[in-house]
Specification:
CATH superfamily: Response regulator
Number of domains: 1
Strand order of the largest sheet: 2-1-3-4-5
CATH architecture: 3-Layer(aba) Sandwich
Helix content: 40-55%
Largest sheet: 5 strands, parallel
Order of helices and strands: EHEHEHEHEH
Strand content: 15-25%
CATH class: Alpha Beta
CATH topology: Rossmann fold
């Protein structure tokens, strides 16, 4: 039996970046889903739980901060690792993203190999939580 491939949800309205990330992470062996709007991202996360979300902040409907806020308030999605990938460089934006519970905050332009390693690390950290009972915090 083969191990299930981790699923990454890419939430990005720039078609070129979305296509590049989709192709890159598929070659790396990930299952990839791509959406371009925030509401669609929340719906997708609720229906088909991804292992990680790469999330832009500037989206055509609700912003990435609101997406993260909604994911963090739902019991089913609150533990999904979130990596913000955005052109918003201001310290206040970074602080807001991390305060919402994001696992990482990367600004554009970005190094795709660095992003790959950050994705791998976030997935490793999150896989440890699946071994812990959420009630007792024991293995």
């Amino acid at each position: 039996m083969t191990e299930a491939r981790p699923t990454i949800l890419i939430v990005e309205d720039d078609v070129d970046i979305a296509d590049m990330l989709n192709a890159y992470f598929r070659v790396q062996g990930y299952e990839v889903m791509v959406v371009s709007e925030g509401e669609e991202a929340v719906t997708q996360c609720t229906s088909k739980l991804p292992n990680l979300v790469i999330l832009d902040i500037r989206l055509p409907d609700i912003d990435g901060f609101e997406v993260a806020r909604r994911l963090r308030t739902q019991r089913r999605t609150k533990e999904i690792p979130i990596i913000f990938l955005t052109e918003k460089r201001a310290r206040g934006d970074r602080m807001q993203g991390l305060d919402l519970g994001a696992d990482d905050y990367i600004t554009k332009p970005f190094d795709v190999q660095e992003l790959r390693l950050r994705v791998r690390n976030a997935l490793r950290r999150s896989s440890h939580w699946t071994l812990i009972n959420p009630v007792t915090n024991l293995p």
